[in-house]
Amino acid sequence: MPSPKDRVTRGQLVTLGLFICGLAGCVLSGISLLWALGFGLVCFSGYARSVGLSFPVIAKLLLQGVLRIANILTIFTLIGMLTGVWRISGTIPLLIDTALSLIDPTFFVLWSFLLCAALSSLIGTAFGTVSTLGVVCMLIAHTADFNEVLVGGAILSGIYVGDRCSPMSSSAALVCALTHTDIYGNFKRMLRNGALPFFLTCLGYALLSLLGPEHVMPEGATDALRGYFRFNFWVLLPALIILIFGMLRIDVKKAMTTSIVAASGAAFIFQGASPSALLSSMVLGYQAPFEELATLSGGGIISMADVAAIVAISSSYSALFEKSGLLDSFEYMIERLALHIGAFRATTLVGLLTTGLSCNQTLSIILTRQLCAHAQHNRREMAMYLENSVVVLSAVLPWSIAFSMCGLTLQQGPEIIPFALYLWMLPLYWCLRSRNMHQSCPRPFFQFLLAKKHHRD
C-alpha cells in the first residue's frame, strides 16, 4: 500500500490545476503558449517554496534544467539555418521538382504520402514539408479533381514520418536529449520497428488510390520552379551530404554545418544570391521573389524561436519537479497503470492526455517523458515509446498545433485525420505488440520509493 507521500495532495492538485487553467486560457484565447509556460514557472516555483526549497535553490534547479538541453538549442539553431538556406540555394525546389516528376496519377494518394515522407525525412520538419511539397500536392489534387480529403490525410501522414525519425528533426533531437540516447542509433531502431506499419500504410493508400477514378496529371506543375532556379548536381549536394554523413554516423551538428556551407556556395554560384539575401534566409527565413513561389517562403532561425523557447522553459521544470516531488504521486499512478496494461500503452494514454491539455507536441513530449520515467527504465525503449506514441499522435487531435497548422496550410479540416493512416497504424501496431508488463516495469514499487527517497536526501 502506498504511503501518504504517494497520494496526491491538495497542494499538488491546486498547482497543476492552475497550470492547466493557464494552458486552457492561452489555447482558447489564441495567446502564445509561452505565457502559460511562464505562469507555470511561477506556480511550480511557488510549490517548491512551499515544500521548503529556498529561492536560490529553486533558481539553481531551473538553470540546471535548461543546461540539460543546451545541446538541443544549438541543433535547433542549425535546423533553422538549414531550412532557410536550402530554399534559397534551390535544394528544396529541386527535390520538389524531382519528386513530382515521379508521380503516377493512378496512385496519386500513395505518391503524396511517399514523397512527403521522403522530403520530411531529409529536412526533418513537418511544417517545412507541408508548406512546400504538401501544398504543391494539394494544389495538384485540386486542379486534377483528386479526392482532397484522401490526399490531405496522406500528406499529414507523410510529413510526420520524418518528424518522427529524421536526424534533422527537432522532435527527434528533443527525445534524444530527454532520454540520453544517440540520434543515429534511434534512427536505425525506428526504421526497423516502424517498417511494418509503414508498409501497411502504403498498402492502405494504394487501395484507396485504386478506388477512385482515373486522373491525368496537370502540366506545368513545376514550371515556376524551373524558370527561377538553376538545377544541377551541386544544388543537390547539400541533401546528399546529410544522407552520406548520416550513413557514416558523423555528428549531426557537423553534418548540418557542412550542408549549410555547401548550400551557401550553391546559392552564391548558381542562384546569384547576395550575401545579405543569404544571411536573411538563414536568420529570418526565405522570402519568395514572386507569388508563384510563395509556398517556398519560410525557414530560418526565427522559425525555431518558439519551439526553442518552449523547450527551454519546459526543460527548466524538470529538475524542479524531481527535487520538489510535485509529480511523484502521478508517476506512481502511471507506474501502477503500466504494470496492468503495459508500459507503451500507459505512455500512449499519458501522451494523448498531455497533448490534449497542452495542444503542443514539444511540451507534451517533455511532460510525457517526465511522468512515465518510472514506467520504462530502458532509455532506448523509452525513446522508441515516445517516438511511436506522443510524437505522431500529437497530430491526430484537431485542436493540437501539430494538426491545426498543417490543416490551415492545406486548407483542410479535421475530416482528413481518419485518413492519416500512418499516425494511427504506428501506435496501434505497438499497442498490439506491447511487451509483458513485468518486462516493461522491471523494478518493483518499493525500489522506486527507495530511489526517490535517496534522490531527495
Mind explaining what this structure looks like?
There is one protein chain. It is built from 25 helices and no strands. The protein has helices spanning 10-29, 33-50, 55-67, 70-88, 91-101, 108-123, 126-143, 148-165, 170-179, 183-193, 195-211, 223-228, 233-247, 252-269, 275-283, 305-324, 328-341, 343-358, 361-371, 379-388, 390-393, 401-410, 421-432, 437-440, 445-456. The protein is globular, with a radius of gyration of 23 Å.
Helix and strand arrangement:
Blueprint: H1 10-29, H2 33-50, H3 55-67, H4 70-88, H5 91-101, H6 108-123, H7 126-143, H8 148-165, H9 170-179, H10 183-193, H11 195-211, H12 223-228, H13 233-247, H14 252-269, H15 275-283, H16 305-324, H17 328-341, H18 343-358, H19 361-371, H20 379-388, H21 390-393, H22 401-410, H23 421-432, H24 437-440, H25 445-456
Helix pairs in contact: 1-2, 2-16, 3-16, 4-9, 4-14, 4-15, 6-7, 6-8, 6-11, 7-8, 7-22, 9-19, 9-20, 11-23, 13-14, 16-19, 17-18, 18-19
